């Protein structure tokens, strides 16, 4: 029967089916983009958000640990998974509006994003300040004048011996490990001089390798 001669109810049903198919395609595309984006977008988004919220001129070094990026990526993947389940549910089951209830699970991704953004550490003139993933908005400070030892950690890599990290140990035996990278180099010498001036013992594990 030509579309023009079809009953109005049938035409509306066809239009609705077309809209349903298109919406499923859009949702599936968004889900795929979120899955792919979760592999690299956290490095961009976490950096931009933390830089705008927390980094200031008084901070000599600001860094997000890997756990921050991983947690943000998990949040993105959770949304992608919920959308994928929605598409599958819409395709296989005719349960009316109930299939949209899966969207209510999307807000469960919010804690992942919040904890991710609040996971960072930085160095300033007072000491090292660390906000761990498990302690939301709770900053632990390792003051320079509380340090008793700094241990430079070496590791062998492809036949070369390289600095991997610095362990800062306070007088009450709290430990913070700062990974070594090229961004640490500009202030490393000045930091070590300041620690020596405060009679902090500087050691390494070179002889143990």
UniProtKB/TrEMBL annotation:
Source domain of life: Bacteria
UniProtKB keywords: Membrane, Transmembrane, Transmembrane helix
TM region(s), chain numbering: 26-49, 69-88, 100-123
Protein name: Uncharacterized protein
Species of provenance: Neobacillus piezotolerans
Biological classification of the source: Bacteria, Bacillati, Bacillota, Bacilli, Bacillales
